[in-house]
Amino acid sequence: MEKMLTVKIWRGEEQGEYVTYQVASRENQTVLDVVTEIQRQVDPELSYRFSCRVGVCGTCAMTVNGKPRWTCRSHVKNVEENGAIVLEPLHNMPRIKDLVVDMTEFFDKWQKAGGEFIGTRTRHEKPALVDPNSKARKKADAAIECINCAVCYASCDVVEWNKDYLGPAALNRAWSLVNDERHADQKGVLKKAMSDGGCNSCHTQGSCMKHCPIGLSPTGSIAGLKKRSLLEFLSGE
Question: Which end of the chain is more exposed for a tag (fewer CB within 10 A), N or C?
Fold first, then answer.
């Protein structure tokens, strides 16, 4: 007899309900495979996001059995509980429909934290020579791989109850720019990161670091921003 997997999926917007589906359980099946099968063969009105399917873009992030994950890299055998999985949209963002959320506030906060790179040179000048082994460059590189999938934002308890908090992704971006010698407004970024809703709102619970699919540490970045701000304050800057 074919083994079946029970899949409960949130349907609707903020107000909605879980709908239960049954799909065949297969070897090496990812959660994204399951959602795609349901949408293509059972319920074509199911809404969700995905793009690359190979763990590069982060578009397919959802809440799987209560935890935010990239579903393309989440194998069912590693997340199912008693032959079942429960799928919801990412937390801490408005729900548009089914498994799709509105990420506007997430990206707005990224900008509010000074996330836009401003170069010190024009295209007519030679590129800046950056020592890849310098302490500042290594700090910037440690944070620069973030692709804004919002998993850390969805897992953050502070974001849940404090909507003014910029969130771990935005502050992680600020840390990379504060350490990037090519960036024209390092002090401005630090000021924005330390303003209301910035670093001092973080409770250092580490959920962002725990759930980051690529192993970044926004917690460490936020701690770095706090330390940098204190050192500049003590030095009179």
Answer: N
